[in-house]
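re: ur msg from earlier - yeah i can do the manganese (II) ion complex, just paste it... oh wait u already did. ok heres what im feeding in:
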Amino acid sequence: MEVEVLKRVLARVDELGGISDSAEYLQRTFLSTANREAGERVMGWMRELGMDAAHDAGGTVRGFLAGSAEGKAVLIGSHIDTVINGGKYDGALGVIAALGALEQLKVEGVELPFPVHVLGFSDEEGVRFQSTYLGSAGVIGALDAGMLAVKDEGGLTVEEVISQEGWHECAEVFSYDETNAAGYLELHIEQGRVLEEAGESVAVVSGIFAQARLRVSVEGLADHAGTTPMNLRRDALAGAAECVLAAEGFARENDGMVATVGVMKVLPGASNGIAQTCNFTLDVRCAENDLLESGLGVLKGRFAEISKSRELELKWEVVQVNGAVPCDEGMVADLVKSAEKVTGTARVLGSGAGHDGVMMSRVMPVGMIFVRCRAGLSHHPDEFAEAGDIEAGIDVMVEFLKRRVQ
Ligand code: HGY
Ligand code: MN
Ligand code: MN
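and the outut:
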């Protein structure tokens, strides 16, 4: 890879990593000011590459590069939103790497015989609504009534937020299906430890695990911390804590399953008062759909038992379930050959993390390249990928695109 191209990729990762809604840490959420600013910056880079750049009302940005022939477009991209206090590689690297790969092909004088669209999705993490993939759902017409009706913490629905806070000025409508898209490719940091432990730079993704996102609420009775005997309490926080440990224990019992409670709100929230209400999120994932489905049933039952034993009222809301998605066999095979040629290795890995390919797979073949990241750390400001590994990942992407020329 040209040194200048790689330097630009690394500089852009730092640049985008500096665009945040918070002065203290990196945060870009759906349709936030920083999300739009990041979208503008990426569109500027797309135009520098000679692409037509545009955005849709949901904040997703797209660069269009014509090929030497017409035909179905190859889509390459990732997301430009982040988690709260996130790292600068998760998502952003995939968009910037796509532009780096196209720039490298330009330097080599390679013209692709098909159009390429680079996409920067506005919301993959689902931080604001917990409902993930709002950006990629928007470009394949999958923002259905269910997704549009999901409410944020303030009670606004996705539909209301797009209407009131959407990026409407000069917005275009992006619409992909099997008639105009040949496939979707994404480069992403592994967010796991396999590549680091194996001492390898890249991997090819076999598929993306099934994932369920839920909102749980337990309702007890606020009372005095000092005068209420332990046997008379209906303590929502103690009940929620028992649920959290039940979820953790269940996941530990089921190899390959993970369960996480990442958000918990305790009400009324006084140190000398027993909690009336505890609202928390539950994120459960595993490789197999049927284990996820049966596991959710078991957990719902255990939460109900815990609530009953503590005279608490349980509310269990499934916000979103995304089934496991296999990557396209043809793309996996081409990516394996490309990785072998570039790095001499071609490990194939499943992804516990969700990615926009889950949504894009509804209408087109999807493929992914993983790049090693330090200690597998992600969703953390110390997230880091070495320049050499990023270069290897982009070289694999370039090789994959060249293979489609032959
Ligand atoms: O949650 C995930 O797996 C991804 O980071 N959105
Ligand atoms: Mn990501
Ligand atoms: Mn993420």
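cool cool. The longest helix spans residues 289-309. ping me if u need the other ligands too
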